[in-house]
TrEMBL record:
Keyword check for Membrane: yes
Name under which the protein is recorded: CopG protein
Organism: hydrothermal vent metagenome
Keyword Zinc-finger in annotation: no
One Pfam match: DUF411
Amino acid sequence: MNVRRPTQKKNLSAAVFCRKNHTRKYLLKIILLIMFAFVIAVANAEQKVPQITVYKSPTCGCCTKWVKHLEANGFKVEAHNTKEMKSIKQKIGINGKHQSCHTGLIGGYYIEGHVPAQDIKRLLAEKPEAAGLSVPRMPMGSPGMEGHRKDPYSVLLIQKNGDSKVFSSY
């Protein structure tokens, strides 16, 4: 009885093939997991980028510079050019003494005027009970109003009742 048995060499190559195939499947799973983790990380990073809606006059150069200041500091800006700034400020409830040339909305707060990006980030981190931040008027040296002169100014935290207190000073 002559039973043909596979040679040792054939058994060895089949075993090597199985191991290689198993290793390939394992590596493919690892690569897919890494790619999935990367996609999730990118999606989370995009969610953490603060997004602000800005209403501004189409002819205001300092408003455009302020938008660029926000973008340079990590904000995603949705800018709307409008000639109805007065009605927007009224609708939001911004007191006349706290008004400036542009208005932003972010995280349930309004941002009025040339507020530095770092103060907006601080507001979002601290989440105070307030209506928003304001830099009344248009002080020279504030973001968007850069020039050779730098006037001192304060960023005001506006309470929901309309009162204000200094949030930061420059």
